[in-house]
Design a protein that fits this description.
The protein is of the alpha/beta class. It folds into two domains: 79 residues, Helicase, Ruva Protein, domain 3 (Orthogonal Bundle); 191 residues, Vaccinia Virus protein VP39 (Rossmann fold, 3-Layer(aba) Sandwich). The chain has twelve helices and nine strands. The strands form two sheets. It has a seven-stranded mixed β-sheet. Helix 7 links the parallel strand 4 and strand 5. Helix 2 packs across helix 3. The N and C termini lie far apart (57 Å).
Length: 302
């Protein structure tokens, strides 16, 4: 039997009332977070502010504002979708953030969350000596196009290819590319990894491919089950996509070109399977477990 957490909300008048109520209901329902926020307070605040068309980083001035009947109903509907239906907040607001950049998202794409974004804000220095000299770059498994957009901004002189197998995902990516005015710099390509790229080569390849293993897929909470399985699952051990990428990446890199890849919690399994590859693990958010870098020359080691 499904629990209805919203039987009586008539007494909720102010933003403060709805904030407290939202936090209580989210905790009561034992929601999972991780799509932009990490706790019920931040999630409830974000959903309220977004629904009321208020600045999402400035809750305090509005806490004691009285809400109209229409505003209260709008917030109630948003909270019901989040709590009763377990819809991720980003799919409700059609908005996801990487750093200070906002992207349109919906159920056709994975909600952006990549450690590579941190590295792109630093333009991959020191592994890219001169960002202005990067003339071609590839975002493999682009999804919403968020990393391709960050790639284009990090390397303004680069032609950027953004590849995804899903035509639905590429429609979302196209919307974001247009929003950032990067149509002339970013080329969207439907391809099963490298299959449609011919002999094209790049100075930089980045990829945040599917990497969830089968046991973990079976245990995902409802919020993550709402995302496209195609963007998450990568075989029994989570390495199917990265195996293919490692096999073919060197063919698509110029001399001294680099591959930067995110692989979730699969570091130990990856190193065990490819002991000959000299992975360099990059520091992101205090951890060196999730993103590696290899040069073309290192990828060719056998």
């Amino acid at each position: 039997m499904t629990t209805n957490y919203f039987l009586d909300t008539d007494a909720l008048i102010t933003v403060r009332d709805w904030l407290r109520f939202g936090i209580s209901r989210m905790n009561q329902a034992q929601l999972h977070f991780g799509h932009g926020t990490t706790n019920a307070l931040d999630e409830a605040a974000y959903l309220i502010l977004h629904t009321l068309h208020l600045p999402i980083d400035n809750l305090e001035p509005f806490l004691d504002a009285c809400l109209t009947e229409v505003e209260r109903e709008d917030i109630r509907e948003v909270f019901e979708r989040r709590v009763n239906q377990r819809v991720p907040a980003a799919y409700i607001t059609h908005e996801a953030w990487l750093g200070d950049l906002s992207f349109y998202v919906d159920e056709r794409v994975l909600i952006p969350r990549s450690f590579i974004a941190q590295l792109l804000r630093e333009r991959l220095v020191p592994w890219v000596a001169d960002p202005e000299c990067v003339t071609s770059a590839l975002d493999m498994c682009t999804g919403s196009g968020c990393l391709a957009i960050m790639l284009a901004e990090a390397f303004p002189n680069a032609d950027v290819d953004a590849v995804d197998l899903s035509p639905d995902a590429l429609e979302v990516a196209e919307r974001n590319v247009e929003e950032y005015g990067l149509n002339d710099q970013i080329n969207l390509i439907q391809s099963d990894l490298f299959t449609q790229l011919g002999e094209q080569q790049y100075d930089v390849i980045i990829t945040n491919p599917p990497y969830v293993n089968a046991p973990s897929m079976a245990e995902l909470p409802p919020e993550y089950q709402a995302e496209p399985e195609l963007a998450l699952a990568s075989g029994e051990d989570g390495l199917d996509h990265i195996r293919t990428i490692l096999k073919h990446a060197a063919e698509h890199l110029y001399p001294k070109g680099i591959l930067v890849a995110e692989i979730g919690h699969n570091r130990d399994e990856l190193e065990a399977e490819f002991p000959h590859l000299p992975f360099t693990w990059l520091e992101t958010d205090g951890s060196d477990e999730f993103v590696f870098i290899l040069s073309k020359e290192q990828l060719n080691i056998r």
